[in-house]
Amino acid sequence: MTRIGILLFDGVEELDAVGPWEMFGVWANQSSETELVTFAAEAGPIRASKGLTVHADRGFGDVGRLDVLVYPGGRGTRAHLEDESRLAWLRLQRDQVPIMASVCTGSLVFAAAGLLAGRPATTHWGSLEHLARLDPTIDVRRDERYVDDGDIVTSAGVSAGIDMALHLVVRLAGADRARQVRRTMQYDPEPPV
């Protein structure tokens, strides 16, 4: 059983959390090999960046074992960059969770916690310079939708989290399962502009 936890917090960018949730949720619905949970510092309602209210099923204390932790981005991450207790919690998770994944500016929090030192990573195009300033040893990948560095996977802005999640389905369950998820979602981007 693969347990995936998507972190929620006030100011989370909706699609950063819900895009990966949808990909992983389709996988979970197609088989019994995945459990998907949302969590926050404390369980309960979370007001996202554009006003959507979502619910964190669990808190930090009772989320349990995770195989993948997804840290979305959004305006709410700004306060996390200097929140020493949150950064310490994140470093502890790094020691326990096999795959740490970020979407958009979630990678800035990873960098502030020291998780990206000397590693390749990406973030939203508008925050690439901020990522480089947080830790000059990061190999900032400016043109990639996601960067898989084994135990840490970062993705670019907002919709890139969907691609990253689908990539993780390939890694964790194989290309055939990922194709099933993609087909179910009818995910075949051809933007109109």
TrEMBL record:
Protein name, entry field: Putative transcription regulator, AraC family protein
Highest taxon listed in the record's lineage: Bacteria
Span of domain DJ-1/PfpI: 3-169
Gene3D superfamilies to which the protein is assigned, alphabetical: 3.40.50.880
InterPro entries: Class_I_gatase-like (IPR029062), DJ-1/PfpI (IPR002818), INH-QAR (IPR052158)
A Pfam family this chain is assigned to: DJ-1_PfpI
Lineage: Bacteria, Bacillati, Actinomycetota, Actinomycetes, Streptosporangiales
